[in-house]
Amino acid sequence: MADREHPSARSDAGTAGGSGGPGRRQLLAAIAAVGAGTAASGLLGAFGLGGTAAAATPEAQAAATLRATIDETHPAHLVNLGQSDEPYQGTLVQLWATIPDSLKPYCYINLIPGSEIHDVPAATDWIQARLDTAEAAGIPVTVQVAQGATGNQGIPVSKWRAWAQNHPKTFVGLNAAELYNGIDQSNYLIDLFNLAGEQGMFFFWTDTNIFGSHGMMLDYMQNNTRFLPTMKANAKNLVFMNKESWATDSTDALLKGLWLTGYIGNWGSSTDWWKWGLDNKGVFPGGEGWQDWKFILQYPQGLQVQSIVRDLSQGATCFLAEGSYFTNGALGNRYAGAQFGIYPLLQSVLNGWIQIPTRAQVAAQQQALVKGIAAYSTPGWNGSVNNAMAVDGRYGMVSLVPTTMPAADLTGFTTVTSKQPTSYYDGLFPGYARTGNGWVVRSDGTNKQWYYTNPVMWEQRKTASVIPLTNVPGAQVTVSSDEHTSVIIQENPSNLGVHVFNYRLNLTDAISQVADEADTIAFGQNYMAPRLDAAGTPVVNADGSITTVGNRTLPDQTYRDVRNVTLTIVGTWNGGQPRVTFDDQAGMTRPYTKTQTWDAATSTLTLSLTMNGTSHFNVQINGGGPHVLPRDGWTVTYTDSQETAAESTPATNVLDGNMSTFWHTAWSATDPDPACPHEIQLDMKSSRTVSGFTYLPRQDGPKNGWVGGYEFYVSANGTNWGSPVATGTFATDATLKTVRFPATAARYVRFRALSEVNGNPWTSCADLTVIGL
Question: For a disulfide at 514, which of 146, 294, 424, 482, Cβ 3.0-4.6 Å?
Fold first, then answer.
């Protein structure tokens, strides 16, 4: 793979004529358009025959071969190089050297001029010089053309055209970012969209739908009547990415909606370390901070992988990490956050271990497209846990489109035109993993894939989710992990491909060593840059540690950061224990411990990993076992207490599969409140062989009602309960609790809460399931 030609290195320079300029077919199309009165004569400026070019004709756009390939098998990874950051990052050639050879065919350096990208020599001379360097060295680049402060002093389109024509092999795209922070530049973007289509380039728009009347991005699309039509005419050239410095719940939704409806060709995410400062965070966990370099460095690298996993599950193909000299590398040295986090994930996609679903595959699953921000709501979000993504994946990712999008482009999708309650989406989406408090979604591509993350952003907390496999009846996987962990499971015939990512560095030394941006140079080399051998592989010491280029020990094996990931796999291989084979990528993981425990009685394999890095393994499985039973049609037959006056927390909430709702005993109508024990009884509607249950505490923050001591009963008739089949005391945390007991036949179950963790009189429960056959 290291010798593979870069998708941008085309002998025809990405043009129909193959000479670095517009081709003959484009010229004839332009002349015909002018003659027919359908285009301005200025269009001929692209061919040196007239004034400044206007929009390219559809014929010209169709003739412009893309200069690079970006799709589900060719994901794009952009790495920023800013003019003002060069003293800290190094040269263009040095930054390119930090990228592994196997990934270079899919990476692009995004050049960011200074001087607010105004048309002044300080910016244009720098652009010219860097484009010349890139063309000579064969380094594929994009160039930022606008930011919020660019305003109406941007570089003329004619200059961008000339640069594109004079650098045909490596100048593959344009970029705009943070336009929310300035005046309306929609007309400038329209001209640049057309230029990208004309030249076969990509236009990467990295922004956030904030400010303005409906969010800046939506305002551009709804207020400028030329904007959406121009997008559609150049859709294959457009790549929009969610810039996460300002977290909004609508940006990802908008980008996915535009992609599904064919208005952009690709989409993705741009993680940003500045988000940590904007959220007033400091040392993890729980530390306070602000937008200062020493606090920005505390941003956990695992959150970058989490953002990629979130969007990759929905078909995203393009990813950028803002502040590349914190993330990717500097002064020619690769940083650990990329080596052991982002790069293993991208390499897994290129290996085929992880498959990005296509647009058709994503569209084939249930999709809700909300028309306009006024109708948009966010089921599954909890900003106190994570303000960059939903914490409940049962709704997938609800999409958003402009109000001005024609109805014909929404054909085949469920279109929402007024704000709907969560209950509406509960009915619309079946939910693929209703048990647990992790974020889980499923994509139905060539192979079904499950995506899990622990969505907790700012604190140390475990989550767990049950994944009901589809390739083997009766088989399931429960993933339990600490924070900043992502797991992708690919279902294959009689096989599961499992990929675990949880890498982060402990950079608390920055608090005392980094006072300004200049200090980040030495700090990065001392604490973030592992020594590499001649092949570009980190040099691991005998004790498993890594020495940095600054002769320090890489701070990634601290007590805080080596965490637990447990996969509880229900199923068998040829009637016995599933077979696990590890297949880690050389140089892209860190030492970790793994243990396997097999319980033949319950057909359960418990695989425990203690790690800070990545792990890849295959599980051979072709038989099922006792698993979480579907609850279709189940009913609550009795509860001794429920609160329905001051809040809607009825007992039936334990069956709705929505972890944001819960059952709570009465507290508003009596004084004192009804005391423990409290209980709930369920009718499964038919006799089943049951052997366990799961209890999920309420997930909204307060611990009120978390169950301490418990009893669990089963019955054939709902009257005679006998002795409890399970008793015990739950740990005082919000994680999913799983309890096993000897298999027995039953139709009814009874859960009895003997006490509350803090001695209060209440009981609460977000979700209650039964394990069986």
Answer: 294
The whole-angstrom separation of Cα 681 and Cα 643 is 16
For residue 723, the tally of other CB atoms under 10 A from its CB is: 7
Q: Which of 315, 293, 320 is nearest to 304 (CA)?
A: 320
Handedness of CA 460, 462, 467, 472 (dihedral sign): positive
Three-class secondary structure assignment of 120-158: CHHHHHHHHHHHHHHHHHCCCEEEEEECHHHCCCECCHH
Whether residues 679 and 636 fall in one domain: yes
In 3D space, the residue among 665, 761, 658 whose CA is nearest the CA of residue 708 turns out to be 761
* 36 domain-assigned: no
Rounded Cα gap, residues 86 and 80, in angstroms:
10
Contacts of 390 (CB under 8 A, 6+ apart): 249, 378, 379, 380, 381, 382, 397, 439, 455
Q: Residues 339, 457: one domain?
A: no
How far is residue 631's CA from residue 769's CA, in Å, rounded to a whole number?
8
Co-location of 601 and 494 in the same domain: yes
Pair of tokens at residue 738: 């799983």
Residues making up the chain, counted from first to last: 773
Same domain, 449 and 304: no
- Determine, yes or no, domain membership for 309: yes
Q: What b/e readout covers 672-697, taking b as 16+ CB neighbours within 10 angstroms?
A: eebebebbbbbbbeeebebbbbbbbb
**Does this model's pTM top 0.85?**
yes
Q: How many domains does the chain have?
A: 3
**Contacts with 125 (C-beta within 8 Å, 6 or more apart), sequence order:** none
For residue range 118-159, list pLDDT tens digits in order.
999 999 999 999 999 999 999 999 999 999 999 999 999 999
Interval 283-307: pLDDT, tens: 999 999 998 999 999 999 999 999 9
8 Å CB contact between 521 and 550 = no
Q: Tokens 């209890």 appear where?
A: 695
Last residue of a domain, one of 349, 374, 400: 349
- 550 occurs within a structural domain: no
Domain hosting 197: range is 72-349
Do 673 and 615 share a domain, yes or no? no
